[in-house]
Amino acid sequence: MNGSACRKYMLWIDGVGAWQLCVGESFVIGAPSLDHESADIALLANVSRKHATIQRNSTEWRLYAHQPTSVSGRTIADSGVLRSGDQICLAERVKLGFRTPCALSSSAVIDFESDHRPSHSLDGIILLADHCLLGPRRDHHVWCSEWPEMVVVFHQDGELRCRSKAALSIDGHIVCDAGLLRHGSVLTSEGLRFRVEQVE
Amino acid sequence: MKFTFAPEARPLDGYTIKRAIHRGGFGEVYYALSDAGKEVALKLLNNNLEIELRGVTQCLNLKHQNLVTIFDIRQDEDNDHWVVMEYVSGRGLYETLRDYPKGMPVQEVLNWMTGITAGLSFLHDRGIVHRDLKPANVFRDHNAIKVGDVGLSKYISESRRSAQTQSVGTVYYMAPEVARGRYGREVDVYALGIMLYEMITGTVPFDGQTTAEILMKHLTADPDVSVLPKKLRPVISAALEKDPDKRTKTVEEVDRQFRLAVAGENISAPVPLTAFASAAPVQSVDAQRRSHEDTVVDIEIHPERTTETNATKNAITSLGTYWSALPAPLQWVIGGAVALLVIESGMLRPVAVGGMIGGAAYLGYQLLTTFTREGQPVEHGTPTNGEPPPPQRTNQPAMAKDARPARQLPPAELAKKYRPAVYTPATARTISRRQRATDVSTSVSMSLAAAALVTTAVYFTTDLLADVAQAVYFGTITMLAAWTLIVPSKLWEGRSGDSFSRRIVLGGLGLGVGLVAALLPKYLLIDRTALFRGNSSAHEYILGRVNMADGSGFPTIACFMLFFAALFSVRRWWWQIDSFRKSRFRVSSALFTLLMGVIVASVLQQYAFPDSLGATWALAISAVVQLSAGWTPPEDRRLWPLNSPPQPSADATPQQMVNREVTSLTQA
């Protein structure tokens, strides 16, 4: 249950916002650290550096509490199952929403419900299980209301890729099937554009 | 959405753009990080207009927790101005309203109102009027409500007036006196009133299909307060008073009255207020419409207010849109049935001839378009003093890291959420005399080429015209008819006037064209037998004193005059000629004219009138007028000429325009 296995990306989406995409099996929630490795979900909050861990098992998401944590009012002694719509409360003041908006995907979305945030503005965090959907429907992981078509982002062979019905181009090159998203890639299509950054 | 700058661009030293936030009313807004990591919003001000930055400079050092802080104004290498300001995260009032299509809970309304009032009150206290208060300018960062675009409003209103690109979104919150150029703090009170109404009910009180329609409602219609909780009705009504002198004086007073009205009230009781609390907020059709497209046919919010005229108008409009709404296969079935009817009724020949002319005219369309685009010095919405039109934004490909994109001036008003309204020939608008004269002369000269083209098409594709002399005759009459229709139609353009009297005028002019058509063969020494293919029914027919058929088998002068008079009055020709017609050349419009021509000609056939010639004329005239009359592409349509903002003393005041709009809408 170490955050080091998690790869983090930033998606800077024009007209939509900034989203963090976490790829891995388990994700540590905690405070940022200057000396040590920061938590995967690092919040400027009065919480421990490793306050809780969200882990995906084959069928479910579980939260492991290392410090006082509750889920939708239930105090978590050791671990508990997370369901879509749960509110995770850390150290009584930090509130995060947990949801799996899309029936076709087990990827989860973490929303900030109290005003605790990472050190720069983020609209939300996606915990990537299989793939995540960015598109015009509310049940997509990232709701991009003005987009004409959905873009699927997925992780394959250690790399981030994307696919869409719309004609995509990455850094000006047209994507035929699945496009490879590297650090600094700018994906564009009719009516949409976003940049991917890998976060160290 | 296309933006000028790519991620990682550094238009200003010290700031790196990370993403575009949105395109606002007067420029693009980006999220950027300073080299040290400070989040800012960078607002690029359009520089294609004269900049009024004094207002911004005045507000540069204003500090208030409910106002978005402006850090600085900077100029980039291209001398474009950027406003560096506080980045406000979180969902703004605009987005929040979309979550509550049936209205927000009162507590939520109070939260927003408190922040807005505090910010506005601070501004008003310093003698500053916001002028552009609207949900898209109100933000919430965590729990702090912040009003944005402070001090830019003068800049915005100036640029908007000169660019004449008001989109529907900007007029929902516009006080009636703004049309007269009055900008007191009452305009902010009014806008707050509209926003409160919208927050409570989920819809704005004055909605419409076009900017002018909404403006007209601001000027004349009373807001429907019956949907509000009873105690709030007088509060909102007072804030939405048409006369700024009778309106609630200050925003604090609106706030005070509002609180008083909801205090102690069972705030969950009234219908609009209970609608909240759905776990998954949905986007209403209405909100979607306002946010994405303003091009759909407007649906009255309050049906009980729909007048009979409006109902008729809607019926006609819906009939018109009905065809395009039909699935393509069904259109083919109906089309086939009509074709069968045509064949069975012996109309095959004129229709076939018409089809060929239509096809030929359409083929020549591309050629003509290129020609007319260059040959038309003035189109509505393009500068009249020879300046090049503002370039259209093109697809901006992804740019290499740190690459400086080739700058293109963004359109003045391409609001993210609002698109320009649909302008039709019924839309009243101001057209300067010079513009009108140029339009008429261009259209008339264009019709020469168009008539020649169409006549050539008829000559070569049909055996209707036996020799060149007949072709000259056909072409001359077609061109004369086109001129007769174009000149008055262009003079009527943008003006109100009832359809009936226009038809009478055109019918009268048609008599003249008919006279020429009847007399010209004599002077051109044309063999009438060949041209008119004398009808076999050679019996005389005299109607009163008018000799409709003289028994010779050839049509009489009266017969010709009647044909053109009827043809000119059965169609609303000015719709085919107006710059705001749907497309430059509409095949459906031409075919419908053909159908009318067929009907008129077949009625007159009994008086020896040549039906094929008549029907072909109908189609040819329609093709010629459409091909030659000046046309403004929808994206360039403006209600006022670009360089002459509406002045009270100008051709028409907004009030007059609005009145015209009402008249023309009811007539449409």
What does this 3D model show about the protein?
The complex is a heterodimer of chains A (200) and B (668). Chain A has strands at residues 7-13, 17-23, 26-30, 41-42, 52-56, 61-65, 69-71, 74-75, 79-82, 86-90, 94-99, 108-112, 124-128, 131-135, 142-143, 151-156, 159-164, 169-170, 173-174, 179-181, 186-189, 192-199. By secondary structure, chain A is mainly beta. The radius of gyration of chain A is 17 Å and the shape is globular. The two termini of chain A are 19 Å apart. Chain B has 668 residues and is of the alpha+beta class. Chain B folds into 3 domains: 15-86, Phosphorylase Kinase, domain 1 (2-Layer Sandwich), CATH 3.30.200; 93-307, Transferase(Phosphotransferase), domain 1, CATH 1.10.510.10; 356-385 and 418-667, no CATH class. Helix content of chain B is 48%, strand content 8%. Chains A and B meet through strand 18, strand 21 and strand 22 of A and strand 1 of B.
Number of helices of chain B: 23
* Shape-level CATH architecture of the largest domain in chain A: Sandwich
Helix content of chain A: under 10%
Helix content of chain B: 40-55%
Strand order of the largest sheet of chain B: 1-2-3-5-4
End-to-end Cα distance of chain B, whole Å, is 34 Å
Shape of chain B: elongated
Number of strands of chain A: 22
The helix/strand class of chain A is mainly beta
Number of domains of chain B: 3
Work out the strand percent of chain A: over 45%
In angstroms, what separates the terminal alpha carbons of chain A? Answer: 19 Å
Strand sequence of the main sheet of chain A, in spatial order?
Answer: 8-7-10-11-12-13-2-1-22-21-18-19
Counting H and I runs of at least 4 residues, what is the number of helices of chain A? 0
